[in-house]
Structure formats: C-alpha cells, structure tokens
Specification:
single chain, mainly alpha, 3 helices, about 80% helix, about 0% strand
Length: about 100
C-alpha cells in the first residue's frame, strides 16, 4: 500500500515514480536484450526462467496496478496515480537492481 502523506510529497510521489520507471525500464530492456543475444539457441535453463519471468511479471504488475487504482479512494488524483504506479514501479526497479548485479 502507499504511504499517506500530506503536502507536496503526495503530489510529487507519482512524478518520482514515473522518473524512476523511465530510468529503470530501458536498463532492464538492455540487460534482457543482451542476455538474449548472448544466450544462443536453445536457451539454457537460466534463460528460460528469465523469459518466463519476463512475460509473467508484466501481467501481474499491471493487474495489481489496475486493482490498486480501482480501489484507491478518490480523494486526490495524485493518490490514485501513485496507487496505480506503485506495483509497476516496484517491479521495474527490482528488475533493474537484480539484473545489474
């Protein structure tokens, strides 16, 4: 769940999340594309796990985002946006950290 804050933090959180998604997503794509290019055919067990994860996590993250947005209290548009972005943001930034090791 999102944390409740008053003032500018509420308004700036979605923008911060969008900036981190915009920074992290291309890095994740680059890591995965390079891995596919190096992997050869047929892909090994590690690559097959990554490919399955790559497909499955998108559906999970966007489903969670849709549910969070639908259930967010329509108190302020920024809270609804933050609730919707949080699952996608969490997934993208976690992938960036995991793949950059």
């Amino acid at each position: 769940m999102t944390r409740r804050r008053n003032g500018w933090g509420e308004v700036l959180d979605p923008w911060r999340q969008l900036a981190e998604i915009a920074w992290s997503a291309p890095q994740v794509v680059a890591h995965r594309t390079a891995r596919m290019a190096r992997g050869g055919w047929p892909p090994g067990p590690r690559d097959r796990r990554e490919y399955r994860r790559m497909v499955a996590e998108k559906g999970t993250a966007f489903t969670r985002a849709a549910v969070a947005s639908a259930w967010a209290v329509p108190r302020a548009a920024s809270l609804v946006l933050t609730a919707g972005l949080t699952p996608v943001h969490r997934t993208v930034t976690a992938n960036r950290r995991r793949l950059s090791r």
